[in-house]
Amino acid sequence: MRKYNGLTIIHGALFAALLTACASRPAEHTEAAPAEAPQVPPSAVPEAVAAAPSAPVALRSDAPLRYVVKKGDTLWGIAGHFLEQPWQWPEIWYVNDQVKNPHLIYPGDVLTLVWRDGRPMIVAADGVSADVDYLSPRVRELPLDQAIPTIPLEAIRDFLKNPRLVDADELRRAPYVLSFVDPHVVEGTGSLVYLQNVPTGGDTRWDTVRLGQKFVDPDSGEVLGWEGTPVGGIEIRQFGSPATGLITDSEREVRAGDRLIKPQLETLAANFYPHAPASKVGGRILSVYDGVSQIGQYQVVTLNRGARNGVEPGHVLSILQANRSTRDPYTGKLVRLPELYAGTLMVFKVESRVSYALVLSATREIHTLDRVEKPQDGERL
Q1: Peptide bond connecting 34 to the previous residue in cis, omega within 30 degrees of 0
Q2: Is 151 within 8 Å of 19 (Cβ atoms)?
Q3: Cβ(380)–Cβ(353) below 8 Å
Q4: CB-count burial class (<10 Å; 0-12, 13-18, 19+) for 270
Q5: 236 — pLDDT class (breaks 50, 70, 90)
Q6: Which of 66, 76, 161, 260 has its CA 20 to 30 A from that of 196?
Q7: Cα separation of 61 and 35, whole Å?
C-alpha cells in the first residue's frame, strides 16, 4: 500500500488495471487486429475468466493487436483502445494466478489481444515481445508506485480537502467550538479552544467543519444532509463541560460555532471491479466540489443515491443531460427535450444516503441535477 497525502491507495487485484480515467489518445506502438489471431491454450485460462461474460463484449473496429504501455498511460484509456465500453475490461483480462499481484501493469509491458474459442482476451507480458510463450510466470521486483496509476491521485487528494456531507443524525450529536482561550474572533493552528458537547472519555481527535448548503433529494424532497467544509483538526486536551482542545492543523481559520465530526478514514479501498449496476439507479448529481456550474473530467461529484439504494464502489454510470427544454416558436409553449448522453462517472465511495464519484469522461456539458443511470447496451462510454 502507498500513503499519499493522508490517503492509502491500494494497488491490487484487477482494479489496478481498470479505474483510472484518462482522455482518449491515439494508440502508439499498435498493430491492427487481424482476422485470425493467436489462440490461448485452454489450460492457460483460469476458470473465473473462462466463464461466460455477463454481457456481450464489443471490441472496437480498430482495436490493436498489440499495445506497449507507456509512462503517463492510464488503464481506462488503454481499455478504450480495445473496447467500446472500457469498464468491461474484467471480462477479457487474462489472469495469471501463479504470479503475485499479476494485474499490476508497468510502462514497457506489452498487452496483446488474443482469441480463445472465438472470445477476445487480453494478456500481458513485460518486455518488448508479446508472444504467447510469455504466458508463463515471470517475477519482477518493482515499486508499486511505478505501476500505471488507478484513480488520479490528485483528484482524490482534492476530494479529501473538499466538503463532506454531514447527515442530520451526525449533526444532532456533533460537538462544536464554543469560544477561544485567548480573546480572539478566529484562531489557527496551535491555539487553544473551548468546546461544547464533547463526549467524556470519547475520541480525542476530531475534524472541524463549517456547515454550508442543505442537500435535498430533488426527486423525493428528503433532506440528505448538509455540506461540511473542512476547517482543520482538533485534539482534546481536557474533557469537561466545556472541554479544552488544541487546533492541530487548519485549512481555514476556526470560528465559534464550527462543528466537530469524526475524522474520515485514511484508507480508501480501491480493490473493487468497475461494473455496471444490476438494476436502474435513477440518481442525480447533487453537487460538485469546486463550486463551478459546469462539471468536467476528473471532478468529484456527490450523487443522491447511496448504499441503501444498492449503489456500490466501482459502479460505472452514464451521465444524462436532464431538465432541458426549449420554447416552441409557434405555440410559445415550453417543450421538454430528450435526455442526452453527456459522459461517464465511476463511484468510488459510498455512504448510506449518498455516494461520491469521479467523472471519467465528459462529451457534453454536465451540470448539477443531471441524471446518472445504468449504461445502456451499445452506448459508447
Answers
A1: no
A2: yes
A3: no
A4: buried
A5: very high
A6: 161
A7: 11
Using DSSP's 3-state secondary structure scheme, residue 94 falls into coil
Q: Encode pLDDT of 193-206 as tens digits.
A: 999 999 998 889 99
pTM of the model: 0.67
Contact criterion met (CB below 8 Å) for 303 and 285: yes
- SS3 string, the chain, reads CEEECCEEECCCCHHHHCCCCCCCCCCCCCEECCCCCCECCHHHCCHHHHCCCCCCCCECCCCEEEEECCCCCCHHHHHHHHECCHHHHHHCECCCCCCCCCCCCCCCCEEEEEEECCEEEEEEECCCCCCHHHHCCCCCCCCHHHCCCCCCHHHHHHHHHCCEEECHHHHHCCCEEEEECCCCCEECCCCEEEEECCCCCCCCEEEEEEEEEEEECCCCCCEEEEEEEEEEEEEEEECCCCEEEEEEEECCCEECCCEEECCCCCECCCCCCCECCCCCCCEEEEEECCCCCEECCCCEEEECCCHHHCCCCCEEEEEEECCCEEECCCCCCEEECCCEEEEEEEEEEECCCCEEEEEEEECCCEECCCEEECCCCCCCC
Helix ranges, 60-167 (H) = 75-82, 153-161
Its CATH class, for the domain covering 283-373, is mainly beta
Q: Measure the CA–CA gap between 96 and 48, rounded to whole angstroms.
A: 11
Distance CA 34, CA 257 (A): 67
Dihedral pair phi/psi, residue 78, rounded to 5°: -65, -45
The continuous run of DSSP H or E covering 300 comes out as strand 300-303
